[in-house]
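Figure 3 (text version): structure tokens given as input.
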């Protein structure tokens, strides 16, 4: 039998995959709306939330792989040539934000569990999906990714001590456990993305950019289903608390966003807006995994509720960023 050339094999696979690629590209164009609607799927259909719970870690691995595949490597290196700027962003997010939150929370009419959750939320690193969200709304995904990765490495050293100091919460983040999680959620995606770049080649990957963005949207939607596990029961049992905590979650997310954007306007509009978006959208997955059983259950529930403003942020803020970008030049 005459062997089929590699080029013909690739062309055949590409033709077969075209409907999927087109669907994912269309999903990317509707990404903010899909995220806005999708976050409520786990609340509306509890069985869906329970069924997706196992998928959280594989989801994060796939999500990070796609985010790394979309990185503009020269743009990322340009940010690395300005390490002081990157260090200032991470320090503000990981140190200044929790201290500001701790200063404000005592003046709010909130219960102890929600107040503690707000402060712990502010100690977290940026959401893994942050770079993808930045791309969806026209901000700087490379700056967002580098700050997020730096935060992931730093958060075990800053998050638990600050949480304990400011709220009394004891977050048991052990070094071996953290390194294992880091190897899974960062090491595997990094190796996978480098292998794909090597085997497939940048020229073939480039046209799939929109499809990768669409796949990221669906992965984040599935993640949203999973983290809402149990939320419908809580909504029925204590609707007043759920509404109050949701309002607090929006205030924390968009409040940190606005404050961080203003604090970094000296970097230029596009960079400062990117800092704001990642400061408001925080990754609570690590903390959910290490919350002690004796912790107030409202803390874990708040970590789920804070996903609502995170998911809605591209839908709500995208038009704002587009309007502001027309008024100001957006330097890198």
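Below: residues designed for each position.
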């Amino acid at each position: 039998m005459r062997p089929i050339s590699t080029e013909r094999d690739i062309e055949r696979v590409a033709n077969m995959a075209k409907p999927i690629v087109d669907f994912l590209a269309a999903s990317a164009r509707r990404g903010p709306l899909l995220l806005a609607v999708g976050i409520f799927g786990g609340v509306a259909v509890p069985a869906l939330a329970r069924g997706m719970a196992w998928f959280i870690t594989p989801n994060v691995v796939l999500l990070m792989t796609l985010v790394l595949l979309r990185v503009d490597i020269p743009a990322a290196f340009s940010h690395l040539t300005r390490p002081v700027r990157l260090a200032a962003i991470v320090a503000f997010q990981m140190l200044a934000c929790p201290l500001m939150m701790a200063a404000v929370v005592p003046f709010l009419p909130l219960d102890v569990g929600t107040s503690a959750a707000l402060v712990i939320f502010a100690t977290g690193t940026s959401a893994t999906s942050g770079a993808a969200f930045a791309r969806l709304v026209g901000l700087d995904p490379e700056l967002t990714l580098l700050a997020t990765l730096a935060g992931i490495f730093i958060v075990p050293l800053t998050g638990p001590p600050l949480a304990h100091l400011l709220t009394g919460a004891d977050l048991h983040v052990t070094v071996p456990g953290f390194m294992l999680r880091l190897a899974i959620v960062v090491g595997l995606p990094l190796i996978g993305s480098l292998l794909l770049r090597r085997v497939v080649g940048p020229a073939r990957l480039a046209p799939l950019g929109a499809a990768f963005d669409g796949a990221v949207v669906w992965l984040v939607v599935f993640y949203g289903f999973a983290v809402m596990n149990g939320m419908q029961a809580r909504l029925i049992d204590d609707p007043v608390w759920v509404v109050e905590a949701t309002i607090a979650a929006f205030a924390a997310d968009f409040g940190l966003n606005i404050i961080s954007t203003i604090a970094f306007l000296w970097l230029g509009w596009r960079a400062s807006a990117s800092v704001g978006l990642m400061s408001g959208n925080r990754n609570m997955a690590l903390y959910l995994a290490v919350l002690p059983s004796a912790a107030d259950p409202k803390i874990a529930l708040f970590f789920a509720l804070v996903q609502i403003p995170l998911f809605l942020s591209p839908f709500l803020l995208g038009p704002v960023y587009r309007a502001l970008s027309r008024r100001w030049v957006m330097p890198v």
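The first helix runs from residue 6 to 29.
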